[in-house]
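Researcher: Next entry in the queue.
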Amino acid sequence: MAKLRLATEDEIKKWDELVSANPDGGHYLQSQAWAEFRAERGYKPQYLIYESGQDKVATLALERNVAGFGPFWYFSKGPGVTTYKDLANF
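Model: Structure for this entry, 90 residues:
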């Protein structure tokens, strides 16, 4: 069964390696550099791991509080899969 969870501190330390290991080979908009860049502009990075069996996909969400609405999560490029079959596994 697939599940979504927050990345551990150890996973965040090697975040770009995890993103590069995604089925799509990774994307800059999922990188730690992008997360830090957006953090300087008011977003809070949320490092997420989708797990399905032995497979993992590292996905970056950017959180921002929207007045009158509350927390808003933005996924700039994700999930890191290449086919519908890959997506269906997660």
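Model: The chain has a mean pLDDT of 87.
Researcher: Noted, moving on.
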